[in-house]
Specification:
By secondary structure, the protein is α+β, with helices and mostly antiparallel strands. The chain has seven helices and 26 strands.
C-alpha cells in the first residue's frame, strides 16, 4: 500500500474515533498500539509537512491556547475505554486546517450551586462558632448576639465593665453573611472575606478590619467615627452607606460611596468621596484614581443581583468564581480584557449566565470539574 493510501486509511480511522468520542452514548475502545501507529509513521511525516504549510503565527496561536490550559500535550495519547468521562484533545484535518477541541460530554450537566448564607465566628480565646441558620443566642463578656435566619445581631449588655472580646467573622467562598454590630451598623459580607471587630466599641471610635468585600450601612454617631481598616487604607465615616472591596489577591482596593460622605486615608493622603464617587488604590504603588460611577452597580451583589457594566471579563469571572466556588482558566490571554455588561439574578444557575454572555458571539465557556474554561468563539 503506497503512502497516500495509508494516510487516507489513517484519516478514516481518525474520523471514526472522533465520532465515537463526540458521541457520549458510545462506548470507546481503541487499541493503543493502533493509535500510536496512527500518529507516527507515514501519517506522522505527512502531518508534519502539512503543518509547515500553515501560517505559522496562526498555528502558534491555536496551539498556545491549548498548551496554556494543559501545559503538555503528549503525542502518545492514552484513550480511556469510557467516553462518558473522557477529556481529550482531538486533532483533525478539515477544510485544510487543524484545530484542537477539548471534549467533556458531561460539562453541561455539572451542578454548580450559588452561594448561601454561611460563616463562622472566631473569638480571641480560640473558640470557633459555626453561624448556621438555626436561631440561637450567644453570650459574651460584654455583649450578646442573636443568630436568626443566617444573620447575627449584636447587642450590648447592661454591664459594660467586663473586658471586651475580639471577634472575627469568616465568610468562605460560596458564601455571604450579614452582621449587625453592637452600635447598630449593618454589614453585608461577601464571599471569601473576613470582618474583625471588638464585641463592643470604645468610647472614642468604632474600628473594624476588613479583608475581601463588604457593604456598610453605618449608624450615625457624631462622637465616635466609624473606621474600616484594610491592608491598604482606612475609610473614616460618621454615618453613611458605602462598599469596600479589598481582596489580597487583586491588584486594587476600591471604595465606592452610595450615600453620605467618607474620607479615605492612605499614608499621609486624605481623599474625600461624595455619593457616586469611587476611589481606586493600586495595591503595589499606592497610586490613587477617583472617578464618578453609578454606585449601585458596585453594591448590587448585596441586593441579590450581578450588575456589571463594561467590565473586563477576567474581573467578572473572578467575582463569579468566588460566589460559585470555581476556578477560572483562559485559553487565550487576550480574552481577559474583553468587556461585557451583565444583569442577572445572583442566585441564578451559572449556566444561564454563560448562555447570556455567549449570545454576544465573542466568547465560549466550558465547565469541567469546577473549573470555568474560557475560549475564543473561533476555536
Amino acid at each position: 500500500m503506497d503512502n497516500s493510501k495509508k494516510i487516507e486509511k489513517s484519516l478514516e480511522r481518525a474520523d471514526e474515533w472522533r465520532e465515537k468520542i463526540l458521541d457520549s452514548d458510545s462506548e470507546l475502545s481503541v487499541d493503543h498500539d493502533a493509535f500510536v501507529d496512527l500518529i507516527e509513521g507515514e501519517y506522522g511525516s505527512w502531518r508534519e509537512e502539512q503543518i509547515l504549510k500553515f501560517d505559522k503565527q496562526k498555528s502558534k496561536k491555536h496551539i498556545d491556547r491549548v498548551v496554556r490550559k494543559r501545559k503538555i500535550i503528549p503525542l502518545s495519547i492514552i484513550v480511556s475505554s469510557s467516553a462518558a468521562a473522557i477529556l481529550i484533545f482531538v486533532m483533525l484535518w478539515q477544510s485544510n486546517s487543524w484545530f484542537f477541541k477539548e471534549i467533556n460530554p458531561d460539562n453541561k450537566n455539572e451542578i454548580v450551586s450559588a452561594g448561601i448564607s454561611q460563616a463562622y465566628l472566631e473569638i480571641d480565646n480560640g473558640s470557633k462558632i459555626v453561624l448556621d441558620r438555626k436561631d440561637s443566642l450567644l453570650l459574651f463578656n460584654d455583649t450578646k448576639a442573636k443568630i436568626n435566619s443566617g444573620k447575627i445581631i449584636y447587642k450590648n449588655k447592661a454591664n459594660k465593665n467586663k473586658a471586651r472580646e475580639y471577634h472575627k467573622i469568616h465568610v468562605p467562598r460560596n458564601g455571604e453573611y450579614f452582621v449587625q454590630l453592637s452600635d447598630g451598623t449593618k454589614v453585608w459580607i461577601n464571599s471569601e472575606s473576613s470582618l474583625s471587630f471588638y464585641s463592643s466599641f470604645s468610647e472614642d471610635k468604632r474600628l473594624v478590619k476588613l479583608t475581601g468585600e463588604a457593604f456598610f450601612e453605618v449608624a450615625k454617631d457624631r462622637q465616635r467615627p466609624f473606621i474600616v481598616e484594610t491592608p491598604e487604607c482606612k475609610v473614616r465615616v460618621l454615618g453613611t452607606k458605602f462598599n469596600v472591596k479589598a481582596y489580597s489577591d487583586e491588584g486594587y482596593t476600591y471604595t465606592t460611596l452610595n450615600e453620605g460622605k467618607v474620607d479615605v486615608l492612605l499614608s499621609n493622603q486624605k481623599t474625600q468621596l461624595l455619593p457616586n464617587q469611587q476611589l481606586r488604590i493600586n495595591n503595589e504603588t499606592n497610586e490613587t484614581d477617583k472617578k464618578q460611577v453609578n454606585a449601585s452597580l458596585y453594591s448590587a451583589w448585596k441586593e441579590g443581583r450581578w450588575l456589571f457594566k463594561d467590565e473586563r471579563l477576567e474581573d467578572i469571572l473572578v467575582s463569579l468564581a468566588r460566589w460559585y466556588d470555581l476556578s477560572v482558566s483562559f485559553l487565550d490571554e487576550d480574552l481577559k480584557d474583553r468587556r461585557f455588561s451583565i444583569s442577572i439574578d445572583r442566585y441564578e444557575d451559572i449556566h444561564l449566565l454563560f448562555k447570556q454572555m455567549e449570545l454576544t458571539n465573542r466568547v465560549k465557556f466550558y465547565l469541567s470539574d469546577k473549573e470555568i474554561v474560557v475560549k475564543d468563539i473561533e476555536i
